Amino acid sequence: MELDYDPTGKISKPPRTPSPSPKQPSGLQMRLWILLLVAFLLCICTMFIIVMRPYILRNDNQSKETPDLKWWQTSVIYQVYPRSFQDSNGDGIGDLKGIEQRLDYIKNIGVGAVWLSPIYDSPMADFGYDVSNYTHIWPKFGTIADFESLVAKIHSLGMKIIMDFIPNHTSNKHKWFELSRNAKNADDPFYDFYVWKDCGKGGEKLPNNWVNEFSGSAWEFDDVRKQCYLHQFLKEQPDLNLRNPKVMQELENVLRFWMERGVDGFRSDAMPYMYEDVHFRNETPLDNWNSIDNPVENCKTLADHKCWNHTHTMHQPGIYDAVVRLKKVIDDFSIQDGIDRFLVTEGYATIDNLMYYYGNTTNPGADFPFNFLLLALNTTCNGVCIQKTVHSWMSQMPRGKWANWVAGNHDQSRIATKLGEHSVNAINMLLLTLPGTPTIYNGDEIGMTDIDKHLILKPRDPFWNGLRDPERTPMQWNSNLYSGFMNISAQALHHPTSEPWLPVNPNHVSINVENQLADPFSTLNLFKKLTTLRTHPSFQSGDIVYHKTNNDDIFVFTRTLPGIARHLVAINFGKTSATWKLEDESILHQQGHIVFSSQKEYVIGQNVDLGDTNFKLSPGQGVILCLH
Q1: Mind listing the pLDDT tens digit for each residue in 278-301?
Q2: Which of 237, 487, 526, 613 could be a cystine partner for 169, CB 3.0 to 4.6 Å?
């Protein structure tokens, strides 16, 4: 007699007399059919994988479909300070032809975009940030023809060019200001091109207590118009009235003028100052401005800008709308000629304020606002501090936006001076391996230092008696007289009494491009290796994950793009050599090989087991692994 199978494992009672209906499959038979079906499907899947395997599997060195990135996302941006980069005619001042002569070097070190500090015609009260004509070149720098030649060479090398753009103010020698100060009434189109206010006879009754960045009142009496004009910087830099639509139209035309001549992007300067309180209310000083226990840097008297809460002169409503408007001009022009262009904004502000510059999906703003968090680093900042600094930007950046990093510029003490010469490699590693676009100030790729201020016999910078001169000294190309900055033969022929506009740092004898090109482990050659490594998709587009170690001086993170080899970066930000080991279980037992090291002890290609290896890194040095 046939017995039924019971899922409990027991034998059931004998079945009743079968009914005339067709006999149904037993439970055991159903299970056999299911097993056969599963086996068949597995065979089909296996055959599919075998056929498609060449298309869906790739090795570590192969690229995969990565997000479409624009040139300003894949590029290293290199800031050139024109006065100090290369002098072609021996007059002691760098120029456009000199920059063109050095473009092969810039390309060779892995740069994708060249950003020029201001080259506009200017009286040079603030070295080009006081523009007297937005569509002319300062004659000492060259001509429009020189500029067009420079642009053509940059593009022929596959690089892009970015110009400084100064929308907040002009020079008091600009024709707009001359027309405005002579305007008799509101019927004159230039009457309110600038911010004018009544201020009594001779300026004896100022409109309010606002101070300028360079110290002293932000108001200057004009004896032609018999009113005071606002200048948030030097008195030679009157603020434009950006609430006047005609002013914005003129500035938009400036952008179009340079885009027609091949410019690929703009750095828009001093954005937080673009608008001021419409009621011109007084500002209040910081509570601790004169505190002995908690002094404010660069705040000695209430004439100093740093002593005040700038609630009515910075970050005012309208700024972000202006950014959106400038971006639209650039994008519209790009649509017309099919060339992608770029806008970055500059301004020192809180992270919260800076994030507004990105705009939103409806009203896109800057491609990114400059991120100056790394400029604030000091010698007390270890690996944990660096991680917090990085995360503070990455965690607050709007979804879908692009990060960027800046560690040096023409307004800040150089990395090697501020953090120590041993820190240059560490900072360059950080800049070139973090998510986003790095911007490098010329000379930081070789570890140039500030010159001793006492060697500058004629201070040039109007701010705090030459405060920014030390980081603006000529580029150090070789160990010769003037470090290769000046054309000596042209000097002897045309300018026999000329010298560099600022003295060359005496350490150019040892710190220079020529010396470092010959040393495989020099700062320059390590920089070149990093720019090459940065072209890997995981560094271009990968996510960042931080990893814990047993040493707070070490900053460790990975860059990961699904389907692509993952890279681990470890940098010692301490003051002493550090032996360290990972404590993160998620990565602890992985293996990899070394693809970059700033120390000779670690050999490229050397295999590493993260769980069994204790790494030792000298101060300011680092290592990068490709994980298997």
Answers
A1: 999 999 999 989 888 777 888 989
A2: 237
